[in-house]
Every structure is written in structure tokens, then in C-alpha cells.
Amino acid sequence: MTNKYKSYLEVLKSGQEVLGEIYDTDVYDWVMAPSEPFFTNLAPNSLDKTITVTLKEYPYPEFFIFILDIIDEKLQPRLMPTEESPYWPSSVRFDDDFLDDLETWTSFYDPPNIVISHRTPEDALFKAPRKVLIDKGQTVCFFKRCYGSLQITQELKTYKKIHEAGLDSRVNVCRLYGIVMDDCDFILGLLLTYVDCGDRPLSARVHPEEPDDPTPATREQWMGQLETALSALHENRIVWGDIKAANVLIDENEDAWLVDFGGGYTEG
């Protein structure tokens, strides 16, 4: 077992899928198999369709740590008691002045009050949350994670301009419903307009060589809606910034929406 462990360790250190005659999947199967009874007992009931997962559980999930011992040539897993989280979720913090300004025009939401909308419980447990419910399930939003203060600050300033100009109710541009803040005053993400586009933005809707390519009339409609929205932004001295087809969403009513006001940037 010692020799097998050393050879498997070399595979993991190599970073390759296969080393010699050993595949990395062989290593994972070897490590995971003894712990399957633990996983079965610890996992939530996937058949329970009433399970509710909030944004509190996603960035701060319950976690377990195992140690795999080898005793008398047999693999024996051990569940280790621990309370300290092995990682910290990506989040952003603003200074007090910026937070005070945000409070004058938008709302703050606690992660436990935001329910992740999912088709199956399994999706809510491991897929990144996108569609969420606020206001006791009455409002559907798109949850956008915060990864850096520079872009998110610029985006919030733009949403404030959109709000003050009243554009969020007049044209098809994404609006801000609120900000998700945890108990430590970290900003976890933004709650934005949810556009049900079936995960197919404009960049995936136009296929000149395919039968489902939009008709000229549909294209003209989208162009008109984009021109109306963009003109309204420019009239109020608002810059869209990150202009690309992937940031144009076509909803279930075949209407075009402008999204993502964080602005484009180049690394460095």
C-alpha cells in the first residue's frame, strides 16, 4: 500500500491525466471509494423536492474533512471534527462613505433571505447560483457574484445613474434590485434583472447558415430595441462599456436587453 500511495502521489504531482499506466481517475477512485458510506450518510436527501437552499448555504456551506489511513494494508477513512472553514468566499468590501451613498438609492439583502431557485436540489448544492428569489419569493433576480472592487464599484455607479434617470422602467436595460451583504459587511454580489434567455445570449442566437436563424423582421426588432436603449443611456451620459453580443440577452418574448455595466478592461 505504501508503494501504491507513492506512485499515486507522483501522478497527482505531475498534473497529467496519465503517468505511466496510472490515470488520475484511478487515484481519485482509490481515495474516494472507502468514504462512500460516509458520503451517503452525510448527504442531504436528494429526493426531498421541498429542500430550500439560500445564499447563506452557498458561500458558507457545511463542510467535512476526511483523513485516509492505511492500517494493515486496508484503507480506513476518518471524519475529522473541525469548525474553521477551509476557505473564504470571494467578496468585496466598501468604505463607509460609499455604503452610506448606496443606502440612499438601493436595498441591502441578507444571504439567508435569498432563496436559490433550482430545478432539482442537486443543482442548488453544487452549481453557481444565478436565478434567485427575494421578497419572500415574490421577485426573481439574477445573482452576480463580486470578485473585485474596481469593476463592481464602477458598475454600481452606473446603476445609480440608470436609477436616477428612471431608465430601469422605460427601456430594456438591466436594473439593480439590491446588494447582498453578509454579517461581516462583505458584499457577496448584486441582485439584477433576471432575463430568461435560456442561457442563449445574442451571440448564440444568430446563425446565418442554420434553419433557426432569426428572420429579418426579428433582427430589425432587436436592432431597434438596442438603439432605443443605447440612445437613452447616452442621452443621460451613461456609458455601456462592455459592448459585445454576449451582453445582449433575448428574453422569452423575443425582446433584446442590454446587460453588464461593469465596463470592459484589459489585464494589466
Give the overall shape. Answer: globular
Distance between the termini: 48 Å
Question: Any idea of the CATH class of the largest domain?
Answer: Mainly Alpha
Order of helices and strands: HEEHHEEHEEHEEHEEHEE
List the uncertain runs: none
Share of helix, binned: 25-40%
Which fold name fills CATH's third level, the topology of the largest domain?
A: Transferase(Phosphotransferase), domain 1
Protein described:
With 268 residues, the protein is α+β, with helices and mostly antiparallel strands. It folds into 2 domains: 2-80, no CATH class; 96-258, Transferase(Phosphotransferase), domain 1 (Orthogonal Bundle). 30% of the residues lie in helices and 19% in strands. It has helices at 2-14, 24-32, 36-42, 96-103, 121-126, 149-165, 216-235, and strands at 18-19, 22-23, 65-71, 74-80, 108-109, 115-116, 131-134, 139-145, 176-181, 187-193, 248-250, 256-258. Strands 5-9-10-8-7-6 form a 6-stranded mixed beta sheet, covered by helices on one side. Strand 7 (131-134) and strand 8 (139-145) form a beta hairpin. The longest helix is centred in the C-terminal third of the chain and has 20 residues, at 216-235. The radius of gyration is 24 Å and the shape is globular. The model has no long low-confidence stretch (mean pLDDT 89). It comes from Trichoderma guizhouense. This is Protein kinase domain-containing protein. Residues 8-268 form the Protein kinase domain. InterPro entries: Kinase-like_dom_sf (IPR011009), Prot_kinase_dom (IPR000719). One of its GO terms (molecular function) is ATP binding.
